[in-house]
Amino acid sequence: MSVNNSDNKMLADIYEIKERLGKRLLILTHHYQTDQIVSLGNFAGDSFDLSQKAAFDKKAEFIIFCGVHFMAESAAILSASNQSVQIPDISAGCPMADMADIRSVKKAFFQLESIAGTGTATPIVYMNSSALIKAFCGRNKGLVCTSSNADKAFEYAFKRREKIFFFPDEHLGKNTADKLCIASELVILWDCSRKLGGNKAEDIKKAKVIVWKGYCPIHLDFTTSQILKVRQEFSDAKIVVHPECPREVVKISDAAGSTAYIIDYVKNAAKNAAIFIGTEINLIKRLAWQYPDKKIIPLYVSSCKDMFKINLKNLIKTLKKPGEYNLVTIPDEVKKDAKKALDRMLTLA
Ligand code: SF4
């Protein structure tokens, strides 16, 4: 990480503010943030870890969320009334989250229930979604999940209703259904631009899992041909990918799991192991630096531009106005229902 004079000045200011505010300040950083931002945080984690931290740390008055907007919104939903949540760049969004807007989701759920029957499907929304959509799930006996607990969320849902309506990530939905050995003909895709999502009524009635047509552009960069090439050139190497990657990529990898899972996979690998990883590049770079006794190699270099929007400049600007600048607020009625969906996730074993 290269540091110049103006960075030094900003770093000194950040240390001074952290020192002055002490436990009143909590800086949460997502694993896809740069090393510099992660090193300035109080806690680094994936979206599940960070939501837990936001839910259970009630000492901090000022939560600064270094990640993307939906994550900061989740922290705001879980925060207490004496806590504020800020994001250094309010425009740091998530293209996948934007693929499911509340109007289309409501319309799809209505159509689904009108064909399959009211109360037949549990809506499960990936953490990567707006507060409005989380609230919709909360109101409809649904829940939120992350890539760490999507399988548990599916099990929770199947104990209560016969179908799952999962959004907005097609790939996490299909990979989770595969993990639970649900036959692929019982998993259908819902394309909101088409009538009945592009499905026939009888297929909707038969389906166990209905997945929204949405994706993460970063994880769509990983392909089967990259994996086959690695297998040809490095026969001893292991390949681990994130479940936001397409199903065919996950199928031929050695392992697939959430960010926390990938970190553990690397940590537990033998000395000198060669591991190719299919996820966001900042995490891979950090793992390579943390485990110099292992060969950690990106399957392909793919970075999330939105995560990268958080930098020293906007972090210091935020820290200078605690509780004021780029505040993330959620209307009370949305917060109440969205919290139900998040709380159901937090109680999963
Ligand atoms: S990595 Fe993908 S899912 Fe995560 S914030 Fe970026 S675009 Fe969204």
Query: How many separate helices?
Result: 15
CATH topology of the largest domain: Rossmann fold
Q: Briefly note the structural class of the backbone.
A: alpha/beta
Please provide the ordered H/E string of secondary-structure elements. Answer: HEHEHEHEHEHEHEHEHEHEHEHEHEHH
Strand content: 15-25%
The dominant shape is: globular
List the helices and strands and how they pair.
Layout: H1 5-21, E1 25-30, H2 35-40, E2 43-45, H3 47-56, E3 62-66, H4 69-78, E4 84-86, H5 102-116, E5 121-126, H6 131-139, E6 143-145, H7 150-158, E7 163-167, H8 170-179, E8 187-190, H9 201-206, E9 209-212, H10 224-233, E10 238-241, H11 247-252, E11 255-256, H12 259-268, E12 274-278, H13 281-290, E13 295-298, H14 312-319, H15 332-346
Parallel strand pairs: 1-2, 1-3, 3-4, 5-6, 5-7, 7-9, 8-9, 10-11, 10-12, 12-13
Iron/sulfur cluster (SF4) binds at residues 68, 94-96, 128, 216-218, 280, 304, 306-307.
Keyword list:
Rossmann fold, alpha/beta, 15% strand, single chain, globular, 349 residues, 43% helix, five-stranded parallel β-sheet, binds iron/sulfur cluster, four-stranded parallel β-sheet, 15 helices
Can you give a write-up of this model?
The chain is an alpha/beta fold and 349 residues long. The protein has helices at 5-21, 35-40, 47-56, 69-78, 102-116, 131-139, 150-158, 170-179, 201-206, 224-233, 247-252, 259-268, 281-290, 312-319, 332-346; strands at residues 25-30, 43-45, 62-66, 84-86, 121-126, 143-145, 163-167, 187-190, 209-212, 238-241, 255-256, 274-278, 295-298. It is 43% helix and 15% strand. It starts with a helix and ends with a helix. The model has no long low-confidence stretch (mean pLDDT 96). Residues 68, 94-96, 128, 216-218, 280, 304, 306-307 line the site of iron/sulfur cluster.
